[in-house]
Amino acid sequence: MATPLVPGRTTGRHVPGTFEQINKLARYQLREYIRSRRFVALAALIAIIGGITTALVAHFRGSLATDDLAFYGSLWGGGSTGVVIFSAVFFGGDAIAGEFSNKTGYFLMGLPIRRATVYTGKFIAAYLASLAMLGLFLAILLGNGAFYFGLSFLPWQLGASLLLVVVYLAAVLGATFLFSSLFKTAAYGFVLTAVLFFFGFTVIQALVTGLVKIEPWMVISYASSVVGSVFAPPVNWGIHPTIAQVMTFGGGTSTMYTAGIAEGIVIMVVYFVLTAVGGLLLFEREEFT
User: Fold this and answer.
1) Using only C-alpha atoms, what is the Rg of the chain?
2) CA proximity to 81, closest of 276, 237, 220, 286
């Protein structure tokens, strides 16, 4: 995605301050996202998924159409994390790598703009564009919920889960910007983010639980489970996981962990801080040659 060469017109000798530059860069980048084909394509994809989900629930009319917690827990708890990953791939995969592959960084870095300002402005724009996609998915969900249950009463779990998704989005975008800063080719950032968040972390989580037999607290996909688990009473609000022993086919038992809400938040915040700072440090060290 091309970055505007001048983030705002200046008069005389006035140079915008850091916060003003971040604001202008974020606005310009967000406008570019909204005008882009990827924004329309992702919105269309979410609308199609929402339409298919609507048709399936209307056709089978099982427990999802009679139990509000099951409805919101299944559709929002399971679908919102997928929307987050798609949004991060679409809007963050080339956010930094594009400065190298599109050659825009060669001109941008010649202006009196700090790299941290560019990084922060792009992150805010990608975050807001992703929130728009989440808002579209939520609107479709609420439309279905209004038909089956009415909007006079919404489960408080939906609001809590929405806040958790917002934190998860920051963590995923932080990792996406790290990958985008790591490579100078945008395609690598796209592919690595998609593979890791859709498949890689899930496999790592299963291996840690099954082979090492410890809680997979170091895996972001484990923390993201709190988005859906908040709908399943009793809710574990603590910093320690819920542990369950499950019988296996061989007669033995395996241990399953479910992250507590506070634990999941801590893991996601740590992921966000480490990956966002790591991506910024990589971007600061990259040479435009």
Assistant:
1) 21
2) 220
Beta carbons within 8 Å of 158's beta carbon, 6+ residues apart: 72, 76
Inform me whether the pLDDT recorded for 9 exceeds 70: no
The β-bridge partners of 247 are 253
CA–CA distance, 187 with 32 (Å, rounded to integer): 19
CB atoms closer than 10 angstroms to residue 14: 8
CA 159 to CA 266: how far, in whole Å?
A: 19
Residue whose pair of structure tokens reads 């992702």 in the numeric block: 42
Tell me the whole-structure pTM to 2 decimals.
Answer: 0.88
Name residue, tokens 């919920």: 145
Mean pLDDT is highest, among 5-14, 72-81, 143-152, for 72-81
Residue 14 CA: distances (Å) to CA of 3, 9, 11, 18, 112: 21, 10, 6, 13, 11
Share the mean pLDDT of the chain: 84
